[in-house]
Amino acid sequence: MADLYLKALESERRSLWAACRLKGLAKDTPERIRIAELDRLLSEHKARKDV
Questions:
Q1: Are 31 and 16 in contact (CB under 8 A)?
Q2: Could you give the maximum distance between any two Cα atoms of the chain, in Å?
Q3: Which phi-psi region, left, alpha or beta, contains residue 24 (left: φ > 0; alpha: ψ -120 to 50)?
Q4: Alpha carbon 7 to chain centroid distance?
Q5: What is the chain's pLDDT, residue by residue, as a tens digit (51 residues)?
Q6: SS3 annotation, 2-41
Q7: What is the CB-side half-sphere exposure of residue 21 using CA atoms within 13 A?
Q8: Separation between Cα atoms, residue 42 and residue 36, nearest integer Å
């Protein structure tokens, strides 16, 4: 069964990362902060899934 929450998080992260690369955004921008938050959410979700 597809994990739609995981796919949505990964999709949002990929699109934000692409935008940041194109614009050359610094680390403290809201987009980069959201990417860090998405990384945390992804790792937490994968850890719960493994248990």
A1: yes
A2: 39
A3: left
A4: 10
A5: 578 999 999 999 999 999 999 999 888 999 999 999 999 999 999 898 777
A6: CCHHHHHHHHHHHHHHHHHHHHCCCCCCHHHHHHHHHHHH
A7: 6
A8: 10
Model's pTM, two decimal places? Answer: 0.86
CA distance 48 to 44: 6
Cα–Cα distance list, 14 to 7, 30, 35, 49, 51 (Å): 10, 15, 9, 21, 26
The amino acid at residue 34 is R
- At position 40, the amino acid (one-letter code) is R
